[in-house]
Design goal:
With 376 residues, the chain is α/β, with parallel strands linked by helices. Helix content is 30%, strand content 29%.
Length: 376
């Protein structure tokens, strides 16, 4: 059975405030729509229905995902029908229709709807109403209502594709949701278990609630980098981007900045992207004498492209000389500039090896670095 997915994102979301439509605003480090699309990616043909004015934002949010973007209509029913007609070109067996403003939907909620479609033409998640219900005039209570048999509707709402397409084509429009369209066509709709976390972002306060749920899915990565460079004849070394006068220089294919190389490898390691040599092979002459900040900037940009923010960087330089302490503040500032990172997130320190080993014999310098990446 093939399942198509329609993400309804053509609304303007004015009650959520912020100026920008709520689906394009960020929550827990990503646009709302990106969270929603990722929740359904890989489950089948994916269509996102957007307002004609939002095509640029939609294309940016959908980057790297396999989906089709179509423009919606004057109301929700018209937008859903546009999505259904797009899928009708290669009709799936089932379709899930989901509000873009529900970015916290879980696999369990989605799977329950799909399972119910094995026995019903339609299914949708719901939660029973547990609060007391009142009527009112805006300032005072005017009456009560029995909550027995009342449920809060959620999405995705799932249907047999051919039947919901026919129902939408026959419907005059203006329905609150697709269950209403289905019931108007006489389709049986099963209720499945909803989830309190599957909230619909409607008001400004809902962003903080969604943020708290989505942060629970945060991806934290830790990477280590280690590098060594030997001394050769020269009059300075470059450490963490700072030129320091010395009796020798460090030998390497690039500028041999051992500290920056260790940090770069730590970031690559956290991303499971190997080391500098994979991205900038020493066999390639174009990197001969290259400034190591080229490598570091690439690693930082790669992390951010993958949706990670750098939590902190910790570097230890291991050498007898030159003395690092007098230059540590300048090194921190330089690294912060290159990485566009707050200096308070960067630690640069040094130690000796107590005259033991190659660093103790002043044959070279070693560096150890740790990088923490957090899903942005």
């Amino acid at each position: 059975m093939q399942t198509g997915i329609i993400i309804v994102a053509a609304g303007r979301g004015t009650r959520a405030g912020g100026g920008l439509a709520k689906q394009w605003r960020r929550v827990a480090g990503k646009p709302v729509a990106r969270w929603t699309l990722e929740a359904f990616a890989g489950r089948g043909p994916l269509v996102m229905v957007v307002h004609p004015d939002d095509m640029t934002q939609a294309q940016a949010v959908a980057a790297g995902l396999d989906l089709r973007i179509v423009t919606g209509g004057a109301d929700r029913s018209a937008s859903v029908r546009a999505g259904l007609e797009a899928l009708a070109q290669d009709s799936p067996d089932h379709v899930l229709i989901h509000d873009v403003a529900r970015p916290c939907v879980s696999p369990a909620v989605i799977d329950a709807v799909l399972d119910a479609l094995d026995h019903h033409p339609g299914a949708a998640p719901a939660l029973p109403v547990t609060d007391a219900l009142w009527t009112g005039d805006g300032t005072r209570v005017t009456g009560t209502r029995d909550r027995e048999g009342l449920y809060r509707a959620q999405t995705p709402q799932g249907f047999r594709f051919a039947e919901i397409l026919a129902a939408h084509r026959a419907h005059p429009g203006g329905a609150a949701d697709d269950v209403a369209v289905a019931r108007a066509a006489g389709l049986d709709v099963a209720m499945t278990q909803g989830d309190e976390a599957n909230l619909k972002i409607t008001t400004p306060g809902d962003f903080s609630r969604a943020d708290s749920y989505l942060r629970g899915q945060m991806d934290i990565r830790l990477g280590n980098g280690f590098d060594v460079h030997a001394f050769e004849e020269g009059d300075h070394v470059i450490l963490c981007g700072v030129r320091i006068p010395h009796s020798h220089k460090l030998k390497g294919h690039s500028d041999a900045d051992v500290g920056m190389h260790a940090v770069t490898d730590a970031i690559y390691g956290a991303l499971a992207e190997g080391d500098i040599g994979r991205h900038f092979p020493p066999s390639d002459p174009q990197w001969k004498g290259a400034a190591s900040e080229i490598f570091l900037r690439h690693a930082v940009e790669l992390a951010r492209d993958r949706g990670f923010a750098i939590g902190n960087i910790d570097v230890t330089l291991i050498c007898e000389r030159p003395k690092v302490g007098p230059h540590a503040h300048e090194m921190t500032g330089k690294m912060a500039e290159i990485m566009t990172l707050d200096a308070g997130r960067i630690s640069i320190k040094a130690t000796t090896s107590e005259r033991l080993g190659f660093t103790g014999r002043e044959e070279g310098i070693a560096a150890l670095a740790t990088a923490t990446l957090v899903s942005a």
